[in-house]
Amino acid sequence: MNHMVKMWLEQGKVDVFLGYKRVDGHPLPHVFSKDNLADVDELITGPARYPLEKIAAAIISEKPDIKIGLLARDCGQRTLNVLHVWNQLNTDSISVLNVPCCPSNLKEHADCSYLEPEKRGPDKQIHGFDNNMSIDDVESYKPKERFERWMYEFQKCIKCYGCRNICPVCFCKECSLEHHDLIEAKDLPPEVPIFHLVRAVHMAGRCIDCGLCEDACPADIPLRLLYRKVNQVVKDVFDYETGTSTHQPPFSVLGEKVTLELKPLKTVSMDL
To answer: Which of 47, 178, 228, 255 is the most exposed place for a label (fewest CB within 10 A)?
Structure first.
């Protein structure tokens, strides 16, 4: 792998390569370049994950003509597809070096922090959701109990914005989670459940199910499970599978011209 990256840089296939380098014992994102080719010997892989694709998009926004190489697992490739569809980057300027994330121990570099999920404690099992549950398992609860379990999970939030900051497909210039008409800046913990419902709506058609939000969440809220539900709605309603292609724009069935009329807001019950 290191030899391949060196060859890409030397031959000009890429101008920089995004990967991981161990710094003071911690694997951190690093930009490898031809000017410091010896650094490539320190390129590593492992279970640590960061949104390298988001970093690539930020670099390309500043230098549109730059050619970038990066390490990508399956979820990373889905991220690139989503960022391309949402016009955040052109995948033609990205060269991917795939990192296998198959859960087989017989496969080299078969590692990912989400392949061996942690077991949840008894209190969470009783009052909330096991993060590894399927959507069908969640919906097997009666609506009242399901609602109460989601409220139990949401009320643990400390509004650290870790889920948003780590998300590889969060790219809005102005974040609704900081909009004073939706989320009061001074409230801590945030108003339940509006904070997480606002973000869930924005994840519809975007979430690539990488699990980084749960990795970052200090309160162990089953965010991945919530976003899988909104993606399921998108699949059922629009027949759109997030991250599987760079050719299918999200919600294209709505057409190029908006014909919807504004309606007064009504109070509705939330059946989570």
So the answer is: 255
